[in-house]
Design goal:
This protein has twelve helices and 14 strands. The chain is α/β, with parallel strands linked by helices and 378 residues long. Helix 10 packs across helix 12. The two termini are 40 Å apart. It binds pyridoxal-5'-phosphate.
């Protein structure tokens, strides 16, 4: 079976170095924040091109604190998209605000800038685009709208570490950028982790304070904060892996571009070829008969995944946002048709070739059957 994701291969590359760092943390008995986290924060800020990075315990916490630092309060509205992991919307609710959704662009699957202005009300405070599957949203257009209406732009860059447009990296277009280091992300911890990037010293100070119980000094709680601190072990692991991120992103891009050129012409697939603005966190194709395609690929020994089978507004828990079927046609159609193929930096060329051959054969077979059905019907 060709795995959808095999983290063991990455561990084989970095394990020895990580184990030395982790043992050093254990022996230091400094388990929370501390030097390993401070060193990673400096390196990650430097990598992104932001003045500061503040490490937290998950991407969800990063989003929550970015929203709070931006001054989002109950009664406020934040514009985001339904084509994302639920954490984006959940974080807006954690801040007490109302998520206002706009559909995504059918080609890029990121926030459609043309839909934003109609969603702005006197209560709108922020725009939260998602760099879905690792592709940068149209940040020039989104930031221009944010500027024109006095709205804070916060990036959900949880899938897009290192994505670059005109030399500028994900997490530096908006006032704040939010990253996840969940193990399967392009940069993954040995557990949970996240970070907020910003070049605004006041925002950075607020995020830093909020992640550690709102303390202005020890046991003085100037703000109602949270325990969102990063563990020292995660800082140490991430510091080792960050040095490889550029190479890993390039390897992911090579896999995606091989799929892009190798898949048969009729197969609907992510818009490519893939350049610097896409770090290829996910590579997805689309099919009218996804279930048949998925089982054919499983039978052919190719593991697949679905990111994500339901847009957030059609998830049971978020029905109370007040949206329903038909509200976001692009997001809804995509969710029913998308299928993610194996992609990770260590995927071998013979495996890539097998995935391509299996997809081409399965689609030809399914299309043939659909063609037959159509003939019988007519
Ligand atoms: C992974 C992810 C998150 C949440 O990150 P966690 O570290 O799992 O909390 C948020 N937004 C998007 C788009 C993600 O992919």
């Amino acid at each position: 079976m060709i795995p959808f994701l095999d983290l063991k291969r990455q561990y084989d590359e970095v394990g020895t170095e990580i184990e030395a760092e982790v043992v050093a943390v254990l022996r230091s008995c400094g388990y929370v924040l501390g030097q390993p986290v401070a060193a990673f924060e400096a390196d990650f800020a430097d990598y992104c091109g932001a003045d500061q990075a503040i490490a937290v315990n998950s991407g969800t916490s990063a989003l929550h604190l970015a929203l709070l630092a931006a001054g989002i309060e109950p009664g406020d509205e934040v514009i985001t998209v339904p084509t994302t992991f639920v954490a984006t919307v959940a974080a807006i609710l954690y801040a007490g605000a109302r998520p206002v959704l706009v559909d995504v662009d059918p080609v890029t699957l990121t926030m459609d800038p043309a839909k934003i202005e109609a969603a702005i009300t006197p209560r709108t405070r922020a725009i939260l685009p998602v760099h879905f599957h690792g592709r940068l949203a149209d940040m020039a257009a989104i930031c221009a709208i944010g500027d024109a209406h006095g709205l804070t732009v916060i990036e959900d860059a949880a899938q897009a570490h290192g994505a670059t447009r005109d030399g500028q990296r994900a997490g530096t277009f908006g006032a704040l950028g939010c990253f996840s280091f969940y193990p399967g992300k392009n940069l993954g911890a040995a557990g949970e982790g996240g970070a907020v990037t910003t070049s605004d010293p006041a925002l950075a100070a607020r995020v830093r304070q909020l992640r550690d119980w709102g303390q202005s000094e020890r046991y003085v709680h100037a703000l109602k904060g949270f325990n969102y601190r990063m563990e020292a072990i995660q800082g140490a692991v991430l510091g080792v892996k960050l040095k490889r991120l550029e190479a890993w992103n390039a390897a992911r891009r090579a896999v995606a571009n091989a799929y892009h050129t190798g898949l048969a012409a009729g197969i609907e697939r992510a818009a490519g070829p893939f350049g610097a603005d896409h770090v290829c966190h996910v590579y997805a194709i689309e099919s009218d008969d996804r279930e048949a395609l998925r089982s054919a690929l499983t039978e052919a020994g190719v593991a697949t995944n679905i990111h994500y089978p339901y847009p957030v507004h059609l998830q049971p828990a978020y029905a109370d946002l007040g949206y329903g079927p038909g509200d976001f046609p692009v997001a809804e159609r995509y969710a029913t048709r998308t299928l993610s193929l194996p992609i990770f930096p260590e995927l071998q060329s013979h495996e890539i070739a097998r995935v391509i051959a299996a997809v081409n054969a399965a689609v030809a077979e399914i299309d043939g059957r659909a063609g037959n059905r159509r003939e019988y019907a007519s």
